[in-house]
Amino acid sequence: MAAETTTADTTRTPQGEGPPALPADRFLNRELSWLDFNARVLELAEDGTLPLLERVKFLAIFAGNLDEFYMVRIAGLKRRLSTGLTVRSPDGLTIREQLARVTERTQELVHRHAVTFEQDVTPRLEAAGIRIVHWSDLAEPETRRLREYFRDQVFPVLTPLAVDPAHPFPYISGLSLNLAVQVRDPDTGNRHFARLKVPNNVPRFVPVGAAQAPDATGQATFLPLEDLISAHLTSLFPGLDVVDHHLFRVTRNADLEVEEDRDEDLLQALERELARRRFGPAVRLEVTETMDPQILDVLVSELEVSPQDVVTVPGLLDLASLWALYDLDRPELKDEPFVPATHPRLSEGETPKSVFATLREGDVLVHHPYHSFATSVQRFIEQAAADPHVLAIKQTLYRTSGDSPIVTALIEAAEAGKQVVVLVEVKARFDEEANITWARSLERAGCHVVYGLVGLKTHCKTALVVRRESGVIRRYVHIGTGNYNPKTARLYEDLGILTADPRVGADLTDLFNTLTGYSRQTSYRQLMVAPHGIRSGLVDKIRREARHAAEGRPCGIRFKVNSLVDEGVIDALYEAARAGVPVELFIRGICALRPGVPGLSEGIRVRSIVGRFLEHSRVMAFCNGGEQEWWIGSADLMHRNLDRRVEVLLRVCDETAQRELQRVFDAAMAPGVGCWELGPEGTWTRTAGRDYQAALTAAVTEHAG
């Protein structure tokens, strides 16, 4: 591996002028802060007050999150390290130092995760009639039936692969479960190594009961698929003695690097890179605690990973598969079913209202999942598709569901003769293939499909409807913080504005002309748009608050984002806090800012809420001398969002919508709310209290009623 050369950090935005200088240790490490976020997810899995299967769900989420973290973030660090020329992170760590700390922290969290499942959750599941057993626990009638199942359903899809001079070490696909098997020739005594992939097209947890499913009382017993295969290894290696076997799992680099060339079709370049993704280098090797050291040496050598990349897991590997248990029909072990409410302005009793008529009366702020996506945003697009007065629909799509009603409505609109323009971001990570499929379906229906801009991802969530009304053209707009995905809209907390404000309509028309044509417009009336306008716009507004503080005028800043990493924004917040501006930050995930540091950030509070719904909306509020200013949009405060994406923040001018945003912030930052608070040393401390999301659910339901 190439030696690491350290240079100055060229990605940082220069800090504002003026003494005294900001301290060098003012940033927390991004990767370790992300691991702290996943630790908060793990704390919910450890929380004995939650319904049992909800704890199982959080165990699965933790595992899936960690997989993606390694596939993308750690893979990116390793790729930069391999070049030999790198930079220190803003907190001063080299890449090697970051990787070492990530490994240490990950091993600690993985151990907690496994212990929570094995020693706490599993016994509780068993008490509730949901058992996970091993082959040695089974009685003869059960083993007889499972032998038949193995013979008929599993054995035909297994392929043992020998490793010897005539058979090179096989390719191990990313995130697959594998058995490393050691066998011995009884005649010669020679030992041989073989790899056996645990198939991912067979259920991971095999029902043990004769009915192959939970009984009427919900009682269910499961055998891990790898246990079933291990019990039948002799049938896969006839004539040989099976000496031992060990389970392992590999994580590979899955971060696409599409070489974008203006002269090459983006879809072709992306499809070529997708084919390469499965062959990315290994970045993590997970093994069980019982792994034989000699077998481990073979795996480390053949997979070309370092010992630091090995994560030892007590118990079962790949607990992301626990979603199969969560899907059991045991409602008494889950949260009460949640039913989103229709926004009261979008219906009269049970009768839907025209979205267009409603918006002519004023803006509507929808708050998902508390407000139904289906009866607000989805209905907006569906009514536009069916309305004979609608001339055009323009929309950005970053991620959507497999059976998307939004896409269906757009196709129907095109088939009805409306002009439909869709910007499908085919570079949306892990949704590339699905988005390519949607793009081609839309093109076949006659939609004008654009694939994004060279060098930028289009991440903004925008829809524009052009309608002729009594000879006059009127534009209707939706701008939101979340994807046009009806499935995640029931799980992710997001905000959106539906409006007929002509200034916003004109702005979005200009933006779509930029996205689909050659316009270089960078300034707008009611929008801030990245990559040119969001960082500078926010920093200007933060500095304005500092001036208000210096003049003794009302001042204050409130941000709600998923991640706060951008050094330019953080430094501006530090300067504002030094000037006496109170700053409240509601951050779900990564936070590189240190709050509460004497002389730097005493006036900054950072709070995180992790719960039933994924906090996903982005909101920025400025006191502005008493003339409150609110913004919502798609951008997190990270380099990639502010420099390498098309993002949109919308100024919210409707007074009712402003009051609703104020209530959201007041509820989240109030005393006595269950949350995590960030301290100056970078430690998150959990505080028990009222369930913020449950309170919002009750408030929206009461308002809707």
What would you say about this model in short?
Helices cover 36% and strands 23% of the residues. It is built from 19 helices and 31 strands. Mean pLDDT is 91; it is low at 1-17.
Overview of this structure, please?
- Its EC number is 2.7.4.1.
- The chain is an alpha/beta fold and 705 residues long.
- It has 4 domains: 5-110, Polyphosphate kinase N-terminal domain (Methane Monooxygenase Hydroxylase, Chain G, domain 1); 132-328, 2-Layer Sandwich (polyphosphate kinase like), CATH 3.30.1840.10; 344-521, Endonuclease Chain A (Endonuclease, Chain A, 2-Layer Sandwich), CATH 3.30.870.10; 528-704, Endonuclease Chain A (Endonuclease, Chain A, 2-Layer Sandwich).
- The chain contains 19 helices and 31 strands.
- Strands 18, 22, 23, 24, 25, 27, 28, 29, 30 and 31 form a 10-stranded mixed β-sheet that branches. Strands 14, 15, 16, 17, 19, 20, 21 and 26 form an 8-stranded mixed β-sheet that branches.
- Strand 16 (419-424), helix 13 (432-444) and strand 17 form a beta-alpha-beta unit.
- It is globular, with a radius of gyration of 27 Å.
- Mean pLDDT is 91; it is low at 1-17.
